[in-house]
Design a protein that fits this description.
By secondary structure, the chain is mostly helical. Helices cover about 70% and strands about 0% of the residues. The protein is built from five helices and no strands.
């Protein structure tokens, strides 16, 4: 593997850490614009790398595992997003102006529990990326 591919993986890993940081801020404090945390696994920076330049690593078995965990991570985030950004269903006026319902304490607790699951998936993804890097280095030797 070339040095360039190695650095692409490192940068993709950094992009994932940045995404998970934004997701956590959004979930915990509502301080980040929801558009900064893409819900689709092909739209985040890591996904853009994985489904394009990253495909050159498809022959390394852990690479496919990374894709599966990445999809699960976004599915979990979508569950959280649905809880926090549910649109109010009452009236045309509210729909026109994009009014959101206030998140109940119960829903907030659900979202925080799911955030714990999201973090677990993020750690799994990071571990698999680290394994990918090790396997890339072994192929070089």
């Amino acid at each position: 593997m070339s040095e360039e591919v190695y650095w692409q993986v490192i940068n993709a890993k950094k992009a994932h850490r940045k995404w998970i940081g934004y997701a956590q801020l959004l979930i915990e404090r509502g301080e980040v614009d929801e558009e900064m945390v893409p819900t689709n696994e092909t739209e985040c920076c890591f996904g853009q790398w994985y489904y394009s330049e990253g495909q050159q690593l498809i022959d390394i078995p852990v690479f496919k595992e990374i894709g599966l965990v990445h999809e699960q991570l976004h599915a979990k985030y979508n569950e959280i997003f649905a809880i926090l950004f549910r649109e109010e269903e009452s009236g045309l006026f509210a729909k026109l102006f994009g009014k959101k319902t206030k998140v109940s304490d119960e829903d907030l607790m659900k979202a925080k529990r799911k955030c714990h699951e999201l973090n677990t998936l993020s750690h799994q993804l990071t571990d698999k990326i680290n394994l990918l890097i090790k396997e890339m280095k072994l192929k070089e030797a």
